[in-house]
Write a structure and sequence with these properties.
Oligomer: single chain
Number of domains: 2
Structural class: alpha+beta
Radius of gyration: 19 Å
Shape: globular
Strand content: 25-35%
CATH topology of the largest domain: D-amino Acid Aminotransferase, Chain A, domain 2
CATH architecture of the largest domain: Alpha-Beta Barrel
Helix content: 25-40%
CATH superfamily of the largest domain: D-amino Acid Aminotransferase, subunit A, domain 2
Order of helices and strands: EEHEHHEEHEHEEEEHEHEEEH
Number of strands: 14
Length: about 290
């Protein structure tokens, strides 16, 4: 793993950091493609900056952007050198911004100095086949907390996902499906969910919980380009069980068709395969670059 803190090689974080103390910050997990370049970079930065604004970070975002770009470029250079003899250039880039050290108490300092953390780790192995063969999904008992002020944000407090993920430790299940406090389906533990029914794709609204997924937005764009209607609305598990097919999306996995949810099996639909193919072409043609 490659780890930078504020542009310097690091192995630890200040003990007074507000990200550690209060989850006061945001993060992005970004796929590095076969050329070891960040995929959908500008889209990830947009979500990251929106989260910073929502949490009340008052720092100059343009300056912060340049700093992060510089950090990432340095880390990518080290990553490329470390993998020069390998055929695997892909990896996982994680960018975390905390409010920095702020002393005791919830009130942030008026002029905080954010900590920038850039990590690059190896591409996850052993799940490449899931996009082809389909995912087996556990139905989680733990539900998302309800907080409309934080809904959609990729903030550092992910305890709902931690609790849900502890519900299975086997190698059979690839993901878990989570509901919200109203009992409606909200997301996967690490993914967004799409349900296909009668030629329409349905996906939950992230107004009280959930994360506004980067890959989910790409899938919605691709679906509409293929003249597949997409509707964002609330729906329960019964609606999912009565559907024609289910898909899960995230920035590393792309699109996973679901073949088993709880005890019910699902087919991998033609629509899913169409979207997977079109999404692959779109990502390969993407012009979003690391420019600063």
């Amino acid at each position: 793993m490659i780890l930078y803190l504020n542009g310097q090689v690091a192995t630890d974080l200040p003990i007074g950091d507000r990200g550690l103390a209060y989850g006061d910050g945001v993060f992005e997990t970004i796929a590095l493609d076969a050329s070891a370049q960040p995929q959908l970079w500008q889209t990830h930065w947009q979500r990251l900056s929106q989260g910073l604004v929502k949490l009340g970070f008052t720092n100059d975002l343009d300056e912060l952007y340049v700093q992060i770009c510089t950090d990432v470029k340095h880390a990518l250079g080290v990553w490329a050198n470390a993998n020069s003899a390998s055929q695997e250039s892909r990896g996982v880039l994680k960018i975390t911004i905390t409010r920095g050290v702020g002393g005791r108490g919830y009130l942030p300092p008026e002029s905080a100095s954010p900590n920038r953390i850039v990590q690059i780790s190896a591409w996850p192995q052993g799940r490449e086949h899931v996009a082809t063969d389909g995912a087996q999904v556990h139905v989680c008992q733990h539900a998302w907390g309800c907080n409309s002020a934080l809904a959609g944000l990729k903030h550092l407090n992910r305890l709902d996902q931690v609790l849900a993920r502890q519900e299975w430790r086997d190698d059979i299940h690839h993901e878990g499906l989570m509901c919200n406090q109203a009992g409606n389906v909200q997301s996967g533990v690490m993914s967004n969910v799409f349900v296909e029914k009668d030629g329409v794709l349905y996906t939950p609204i992230n107004d009280t919980a959930g994360i506004d997924g980067i890959m989910a937005k790409q899938v919605m764009q691709v679906a509409r380009s293929l003249n597949i209607p997409v509707k964002q609305q609330a729906f329960g598990l019964d609606f999912v069980y009565a559907s024609d097919g289910v898909m899960l999306t995230n920035s590393l996995n792309g699109v996973w068709p679901v073949v088993l949810l709880g005890q019910q099996t699902f087919p991998i639909t033609d629509t899913c395969r169409q979207i997977q193919g079109a999404l692959k072409s779109q990502l390969q043609a993407s012009t979003e670059s690391l420019a600063c």
